[in-house]
Structures are given as C-alpha cells and as structure tokens.
Specification:
single chain; alpha/beta; Rossmann fold; Sc_DH/Rdtase_CS; SDR_fam; NADP
Length: 274
Amino acid sequence: MPLTMFLLDRIIIDPPATDYLYTLTGATGCLGFTVTKAILEGGGDVVCLDLVEQPLKKTWDEVLEVAERFSGSVFYFQCNICDESRIASVFEQLPPLLKKPLRGLVSCAGVSDNGPATEFPVNSFRRLFDINVTGTFAVAHQMAKEAIKSNLSMSLVFVASMSGYVTNKGVDTAGYNSSKAAVHQLTRSLAAEWGSRVNIPLIRVNSLSPGYIRTDAKAEALQKPGTEAQWVGDLMLNRLSTVDEFRAPVLFLLGDGSSYMTGADLRVDGSHCA
C-alpha cells in the first residue's frame, strides 16, 4: 500500500482510536476483507464474524500477515447474524482473548438478489430484510449491551447503499433497494436513541452508502450487454469504484475525526445520486 494512503488512514481514524478493538460482520466478503486489513494497518484489532465456517485459507493468511506486520490481533467466529443467541455466545467468548477495549462495529454483512417483482418470491424478499436489516440490528443491539457493560462510548458503522436512495438501472432489485433504505432509517433511529440517553455511554451510529464497486460479485451483472456502459455513464467520474476506495471513509466514521457525526449517511457513489 502506498505510504500516503497508509498515513491518510492513520490520520483519519485518529491516533487515540487505534488502541481499540472493532467488530466486523461479513468478514469474508470483498469489502469486509478490505476493511479488516485497513483497521489492522491503522493499529486496531478486529473480531471478524461471518456465516461461513472458515474463511478461505489464502484470504485469511493475508489477514494474519497484516496483523503480524502491524502487531495487531484478529479473531474469526462463524456467526449467523440473524441468530441472537449465537451473537451473544460469540461475545461471551471474547473477554479472555482481548487485549484492547471494544470500540466499534462495521456491519458489512448483507446479501443481494434480483428479479422482476411480479416473479420475485416473497420468501426471498423476506430473507433480504432478515439479513440486511434484522441482522444489522441484532449485532448493533449486542454492541450497545457491551457499551453499557463496559461504560465506554462506541461508533457503529452500517454499510447501506446508494440503492437506498435510487433504483439501479438495468436490474430489478426492489427487495434489496428497500432493505438498504431501511438500513438508512435504522441508522437514524438508533443514533437518535443512543446519542441522547444520559444513562448510557454515547453510541454514535452512522451509515456508509457505496456506489458501484468493481468486484467479482458484480462480474455477472457487468457481463450483461450495455450494463457497464450504462452504470459508468451515470457517473461524473466516469468509472466504477474499487474496494480500496472505501478504506478511508470507514475509518473516518469509526474514529474520532467524525466525533460530531451521528445519524448521518456518508455517500461514496461517484456522484450517482447527485
């Protein structure tokens, strides 16, 4: 990684915040993997949660190498974020492992599905909300309990989407779009509740709304004739984003540089919603 990017990440996360632990869901996804490494490079430790039993060895070895290089610690737990009891069980296992106090959450876990609304199964629609909205709330709910227990303030970052504002041209994603709009409202609602109660530590809650990211998961959609040209044509920057372009925004929202932000959405979409 270029030195300038490393220094930028260090400055944005704010030096005092580097001595903390962060929980991250959706750790095996492209964004989760990238943010995990960014936190480790910034001096934090990470507890990674994902539905799969084990991350890919090559991927996890890369994470471990970063942790070792920056004297950090990283832990992986299989966890269904829709299972409240499993989430609680994971957090019960943490105290003996931890060297740093728990500081915040990056909720990357989420799924997408598409199809014409007239043919889209209701159960598939429900699943999108279960994972993208209920799962996000379930982990945030546990994080708030941990904040109260430790009497430490926290910063929670929910990964939403520009699709919570607008529809995606060329694909039918009513369920996904609706679920991400719900994440925006969940962000505002929890921020209002947890930022104003005098009997609990301050918990800031913000969301990040990425635009189109060029990843393996997008490869199939981009192969559809005309899709990439249409998406790029809607952007003032005339290109899709790369996953590394979300490192600094996440670290900013986690750290003290965003101390006067809560209930906000940081839209990083290449101008798609402008």
